[in-house]
TrEMBL record:
Gene3D superfamilies per record: Transcriptional regulator MraZ domain
UniProt subunit comment: Forms oligomers.
Annotated InterPro entries: MraZ (IPR003444), MraZ_C (IPR035644), MraZ_dom (IPR020603), MraZ_N (IPR035642), MraZ_sf (IPR038619), SpoVT-AbrB_dom (IPR007159), SpoVT-AbrB_sf (IPR037914)
Organism whose genome encodes this protein: Amnibacterium soli
Subcellular location: Cytoplasm, Nucleoid
Domain SpoVT-AbrB: 5-47, 76-119
Keyword hit for Cytoplasm: yes
Keyword Membrane attached: no
UniProt cross-references to HAMAP family, sorted A to Z: MraZ
Pfam short name (any one): MraZ
Protein keywords: Cytoplasm, DNA-binding, Repeat, Transcription, Transcription regulation
Name the UniProt record assigns to this protein: Transcriptional regulator MraZ
Family in the record: Belongs to the MraZ family.
Major location category of this protein: cytoplasm
Length: 143
């Protein structure tokens, strides 16, 4: 499970060093793609495969499912981290997420999210009050 927030920097070649705590789970390769809220989602290859299997079970007659699959997969990029735990974020994905030099890398359970640091701080500030004031069930049976 991926947990925590880290602050790596994007280097001049568009690479980041993945947090050491994530290294073992991501050593066999990662798939990164567009995420929601203009961040990037990073999955271990096997988790991405499981996610794809679930998504492709949606009916092909569903416009929303087709559009989600197109956006999700068309931006996907896979690679294996090097010995220094570096991965390259392709220019199109950097542009999509508005990534500058300072980043926020979040562990969110089954995936990692990469945010521009300023965008993450803004998003967090906008959602913290809502998080604190949730009164109903968010996840059925859990929260």
């Amino acid at each position: 499970m991926f947990l925590g927030t880290y602050s790596p920097r994007l280097d001049e070649k568009g690479r980041i060093i993945l947090p050491a705590k994530f290294a073992e789970d991501l050593a066999d390769g990662v798939v990164m793609t567009r995420g929601q809220e203009r961040c990037l989602y990073v999955f271990a290859r096997d988790e991405f495969s499981r996610m794809h299997d679930r998504i492709r079970q949606a009916p092909v007659t569903s416009r929303d499912a087709r559009n989600y699959l197109r956006v999700f997969l068309s931006g996907a990029h896979d690679e294996t981290p090097d010995k220094q735990r570096r991965v390259t974020i392709p220019p199109a994905l950097r542009a999509y997420a508005g990534l500058e030099r300072e980043l926020a890398v979040l562990g969110v359970g089954d995936r990692v999210e990469i945010w521009d640091a300023a965008a993450w701080e803004t998003h967090l500030a906008e959602t913290e009050d809502a998080f604190a004031s949730i009164e109903g069930e968010v996840v059925p049976g859990i929260l």
